């Protein structure tokens, strides 16, 4: 039978990872190349004198290069859940405004999410000021939504044992 000390030694907070490519311009390049690839692949084999094979190979190589650039510009944010008391204390520091309460929120919708990002993001570590700059100046709405969802999941969901991938 496990002792309380055994349980403490084995405990680790729920953790989520959120990979975000911060070079959004590369996405457009990849999409343009993908359209070219599909157009070339859809051409009948005898459509051109030279054939589309060389062009198709060139486009797919360029797509691979852009993909590698995107991977290099991807940051994996590691989000770690806070113990219950620390989470509730953080919420209490960011009390909801009347408009937040009208939306069914128990926190200040403008300040709490940024404070939660700073408190929960363990890699890279962020101050509240850095977290605010990240949210306000760098991330798109979709990228921020992915991070915020991970913060909420790490703090409000239980850890489930995944099903076997080999079954």
Keywords:
mainly alpha, 2 domains, three-stranded antiparallel beta sheet, 8 helices, 58% helix
Question: How would you sum up this structure in a few lines?
Answer:
The protein has 167 residues and is mainly alpha-helical. The chain has helices at 4-10, 24-42, 53-72, 84-93, 98-102, 112-120, 128-138, 141-156; strands at 15-21, 74-80, 121-123.
Structure notes:
- This protein folds into 2 domains: 13-20 and 75-156, rbstp2171 (2-Layer Sandwich); 23-72.
- 58% of the residues lie in helices and 10% in strands.
- The protein is built from 8 helices and 3 strands; from the N terminus they run H-E-H-H-E-H-H-H-E-H-H.
- It has a 3-stranded antiparallel β-sheet with strand order 1-2-3.
- The longest helix has 20 residues, at 53-72.
- The radius of gyration is 23 Å and the shape is extended.
- The mean pLDDT is 93.
